[in-house]
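Why does residue order matter? Because the sequence determines the fold. Keep that principle in mind as you read this record.
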Amino acid sequence: MKNILIVLLISALSSFVAPATKTISVKSDPAGAEVILNGYFVGKTPIEIKIDEKQYNFISLSKSGYKRQRIELKGIDKEVEVKLEKDL
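Structure:
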């Protein structure tokens, strides 16, 4: 009985310690833009990324022939859609 109580207590406490993560879908027009999350390359659009909501998060999108765009992810719920501007 004592062991079960300890396991339940550890399970309950781990929910407070675990990071709050969420998944955000990133799309761009045109597709195929490189996605940099917090300074690290994570793939090309369209892509789903996981972020830790407890930290500051940003993405940079870039594609040859287009201007680089930086987006802060604070307040973004589920999806980011970015129309890239042509680089003149």
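The radius of gyration is 18 Å.
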